[in-house]
Amino acid sequence: MDVVFSGMRPTGRLHLGHMAGALSNWVKLQEDHECYFSIVDWHALMSDYADPSKLSLNTREVLLDWLAAGLDPQKCAIFAQSHVKQHTELHMALSMISPLGWLERCPTYKEQILNLRNKDLSTYGFLGYPVLMASDILVYKAVKVPVGEDQTAHLEISRELARRFNNFYGPVFPEPAITLTYNPKIPGTDGRKMSKSYGNSLDIADEIPVLGKKIRAMTTDPARERRTDPGDPDRCPVRDLHKFFNPDSEQMDEIASGCKTAAIGCVDCKKILIAHVTEYMTPIQERRKYFGGRGDELNGILADGAARARVTAERTMDEVYEALSMPKLK
Fold it and tell me: What is the pLDDT of residues 20-56, one digit of tens each?
């Protein structure tokens, strides 16, 4: 089976955008791929190094959200990045051959330097983020890395580093393929991109009544100031949520037509959405509650996942040390 690696930083509870854009795809991949899914806690220190006090709690929250969404520890390895030391070993090796120009030109590096001005990001950890990401992927010899379009620059660096290592020391790493995941537009309650930092998120952990309350308060088409005003469903954030949660195409057409003719109001449209969200999210939240009361089981899932990951990672590092002509203690 093809090897897949992906990960998420533990910066807090995940929201429906994460579920629609990544987790729903991961759940499918685990059925017919050898999957490694890592809570990348070293990466979390990239911007939050000054206060790691919430790292352990956030790791637990992410794990609960993953299990709730349907990741099965019997079908994939689920683990914390820091529990597999080979990530940092390979990171050290790759850092020796990583040209500074590659890292300084990375568009996400420049973008986040501008956007996160409230934090001191003048650290190697921040600059070298793509090198650690490359290590995460290459240590499992992953050939598929499901990422959003905003991560393609980082993944291209991973491909370049694999080529560069192979050119210097002989063929060890396959080049991971850029596997773009379909990212449905999941807006926040204010119509902007869903984000915890905007305070507009619908969280996986939110109880159904909370989700309903947030949806009822959502921004809609600004042209519909009154119930009798016709609207444009393509401009409405609620419509975007319907596209993911509402499987009834005939009902979707009726809602769109009703919006355009003012035959249906925004309140009624949201009621229909809440019903579909309730149906979709109820089993997910039940799984989250189930695992939430089983702390020892959660620890066991991470421990077992790390043990499985270490077996693969250690095989790769044996090849790396041999390629580098470095004696490796057994």
Answer: 989 999 999 999 999 999 999 999 998 788 899 999 9
As given in the structure block, the two tokens for residue 71 are: 């990741």
Measured distance between the N- and C-terminal CA atoms of the chain, rounded to whole angstroms: 29
Q: What's the predicted TM-score (pTM) here?
A: 0.94
pLDDT in tens, 117-148: 667 778 888 889 999 999 999 999 999 999 87
Amino acid at 4: V
Q: Which domains does the chain have, with CATH numbers?
A: 3-185+294-323 (3.40.50.620), 206-288 (1.10.240.10)
List of residues 6+ apart from 195 with CB closer than 8 A: 17, 188, 201
CA 36 to chain CA mean position, Å: 13
